[in-house]
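Q: Got a minute? One more chain.
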Amino acid sequence: MRVLTVNPGSSSLKVSLLDPDGTVLADDAGAEHELAGLVGGLPKPDAIGVRFVHGGTDYTEAVRVDATVTARLRDLADLAPLHQPASLEALSAVTEALPGVPVVACFDTAFHATLPDEASTYALPREWRERFGLRRYGFHGLSFSYAVRRAGELLGTDPAGLRMVVCHLGAGASLCAVAGGRSVDTTMGFTPLEGLVMASRAGSIDPGVPLWLIKHGIPAEEVNRALERDSGLRGLTGTGDMRRIRELAAGHDVTALAALDVYHHRLRACAAAMTASLGGLDALVFTGGVGEHDPSVRMRLAEDLGYLGTAVDPDRNAAADGDADITHAGAAVRTLVVTAREDLEIAAAVRRRLRRGATDGTLPP
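A: Always. Here it is, folded:
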């Protein structure tokens, strides 16, 4: 089964055509309005997988898309406003360009369906939690799922026997505590706003801050837009591009240096929290654009967690290109870099879904 994977991110759009053994037959990237032309230039697939950030409580695994599923995904758009609308546009474009080809929605929230109640429950009134589905969902699940499996391959062991903290660091960023190969804690919550300092998102803040701003005349939509698009590294420095911030910091720019300190303070605290949920740490895994390409982020976090036994080899860390073991000789915890391959996870989920023969868009029994 040849699968076309469509992966709209907060700052990118990736399209890949994979054959049954995972070989990429074609891939490309472009703006959302170019997707139909992009798809039209590729060999016709047997099935299509579209990444959706949020599946809510309705979809805890991949589902074949029909009108009912599409309508429900639209209802969830305000929970992931940087991603869900883009995925819906992509879904519309590919179904129009490739009529009759089955389409499967694959969800970032699905990997976190295993979160225990103590990790997923907000201490909010029961009526609100039950009426609105208020809980911690977690995101970047497709990336985490692949990284866990690939880490096991790199270490030559079953990931089910490892306690891992996986760091998906990019424009959007989150951490996941993985035990027994399953998500047991994560830094994002009800929406992708919670957790780490990101390119344009504030991450965790006192909920009293937006309430105070709204009370003092800032429109709710403006507050929401600022938290999603004008905060994080962009709010601290004027740019969300980590490469540019590194350049400024290298020139001793005080604002950039301070922003990196804020970024790493939150990263260190959240990573330590993940290890607490695991009761220890066997492997620290970096993935995502920043996680894969910024040796300084990896080095600094490993140093910050050194009390747990993490240490990276400076030469291996600097030379890492693609999947790599960058552990310092003698370190108690293994540190890995894993290239993000959400396309492989999407394709695998599509094949599993369609092999079950479900055609009505409902979840399997």
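A: The chain has 15 helices and twelve strands.
Q: Perfect, thanks.
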